[in-house]
Amino acid sequence: MSTCISYKLRPCVPVESLPVELLSYIFALTAPSPHTHETTTDPLFDMDLARTPTRLSSVCRHWRRVAWETPTLWTTLSATIGSIHEFIIPQTGKRRTLFDTSHFSAHLKLSRNRPIDILIDARDPHYDFGEPDLDPYCSYTPPFADRHMYAAIRTLLPHMSRWRTLSIMTDTWRPLHTAIQLINPLDAPLLEHLTLMRCNDYISHAPNFEPARYALPLNFHANPNIDISQRQSSLRHLTLRGVPAAWSTLSAPLHLQTLDISSLAAGVRPSLREMHATLSACAQTLCKLRVLNDADVMYIPDSLPPISLPALTHLTIGFRSDVCSGLVQAGLVDTPRLENLTVECETHPGDVGVPDASGILACFGDVDLESLTLKAVYASRTVLREACEGVKHLEMERMSNVDCLLEPGLSLETLTLCECEGADRVTVQKIRQAVGKSVLISLHVVGEAGEAFEGLEDVVVHRTAEYSDEGEIELPSEDEAYCLGGTFNDPVFDAMYMQPSVATR
User: Fold this and answer.
1) CB of 184 closer than 8 Å to CB of 222
2) Which DSSP category does 378 fall into?
3) Which of 71, 178, 195, 387 fits as disulfide partner to 167, beta carbons 3.0 to 4.6 Å?
4) Rg (CA), the chain
5) Beta bridge partners of 375
């Protein structure tokens, strides 16, 4: 009795006096939104924010009731390797893993009929780039396997009509292959954002897609008898990194606003004609585009007309060879409103030399750019200087030739230099004198290299710690590296990855 009296006489916390409708509205504001990220490289929502509904429901009984009656609080569904639970079979004592669907089931029920945003992050922080389907000697087993992906997608399929955002990121291909088998983007009428990423760019440098037996392309209309132009689609943002597609199925109008096609092996990249058809289908609405510039210029069909992209403001071009060209360099794309250009070298880390980007940069000599980003790009000083003229915001990353900035006359407002070899203290001081004191200069350096810029006036220095993998890495001696089974004398590795003509020498 005394407990009940003391509870009733307990002073009321001010937040408990809020009307239920107002508290529910406040809860809804804390829900993660997939539309707050401007780039397609980041996850569409914060994984930590995805746990907000559970935290709010754990405060007290009153908050739990209010949270359960706020559907918009539960519209974000996320799955990671933490969703994989291990158990032991009593009869055999063997260990098994399964995907825990309770999180998905609870959110699907509490979100009622609201549009949902889905993130499946199957990446493993300890992934070592091994893949059992590529290497028979590989002992690595992904914690988020294809059977777990199957369970996750099968739980979501009955609610496909509510999908608004779907983002799937994996290290190995099999889990993503399983997802592609089960989904068809155009069967989700509310789907606006679709991101599929195989986060292993090394595979994209192979001549053909690997593993070849699982080379299933994403198909945007599985039934060829259905006219795709008659199907309503809300898809506006599409990212396919390391994921091949049936590119001809993207030739119908989809009204895309952002498109990212990258990190693909040569054998599964869209041809020049297919890329031309895809861009033509979304020419009036496309605002952001990221492509790999590698179509051979000598095979450009004469019948392809130029494409005008009047809404395009952001363009990212990755290149791997200076003897190849794409639609832009071939003069088949007109970008009258282009404001932000990024050109980055995407060659293999083991390749010797850097391809010349002069041909790509020359294509934008007449474009009034707001910002220009160059990543590991090599070009002549004259070409770089011409590309920087008229630009207000310039960023150079891992560049060795920054001499183009030593002459006055640029219209810069901000200048960012990230890990540029040629940007020593003396050179930065000369750049400051050339561009003027009104320009904001930012330097990003790694480790002890930042000590050389201490005390430098009018320059903001950002120091990044050197990468360390649980302490210092002890490198093998030269004798160990060349002995049988060492780094440079591994017959198993050579037999699998070296060409026969090289291995038999």
Assistant:
1) yes
2) B
3) 195
4) 27
5) 344, 397
**Among 90-94, 200-204, 336-340, 365-369, where is mean pLDDT lowest?**
90-94
DSSP notation for 155-213: HHGGGGGGEEEEEEEESSHHHHHHHHHH--GGG-TT--EEEEEE--GGGGGSSS-SSGG
Is residue 211 reached through a cis peptide bond, with omega within 30 degrees of 0 on the bond before it? yes
Rounded average pLDDT over 406-413:
88
Each residue of 175-197: pLDDT tens digit?
A: 999 999 998 888 888 999 999 99
- Digit-coded pLDDT (tens) for 286-303: 999 998 765 444 455 667
One-letter amino acid at 284 equals Q
Q: 154-160 contacts: CB < 8 A, separation 24 or more?
A: 154/182, 155/101, 155/104, 155/105, 155/108, 156/77, 156/104, 156/108, 156/118, 157/182, 157/183, 159/108, 159/116, 160/187, 160/188
Nearest to 205 by CA among 318, 347, 321: 347
Structure tokens at 396: 């150079």
CA distance 282 to 256: 6
The span from the CA of 195 to the CA of 168, in Å, is 6
Coil, helix or strand at residue 133: coil
Do residues 251 and 281 lie in contact, with contact meaning Cβ atoms separated by under 8 Å? yes
Output the CA angle 462-465-467, nearest 5 degrees: 135
* CB-based contacts of 480, cutoff 8 Å, min separation 6: 486
Instruction: Please give the Cα distance from 289 to 342 (Å, whole number).
Output: 10
* Better-predicted residue by pLDDT, 13 or 294: 13
Helix orientation angle between 102-110 and 146-156, rounded to the nearest 10 degrees:
20
Burial of 349 (0-12, 13-18, 19+ CB in 10 A): exposed
Distance CA 101, CA 85 (A): 10
Give the integer Cα–Cα distance in Å for 67 and 282.
Answer: 40
pLDDT of residue 500: 41
Contact 425, 453 (CB under 8 A): yes
Closest CA to 364 of 306, 317, 420: 317
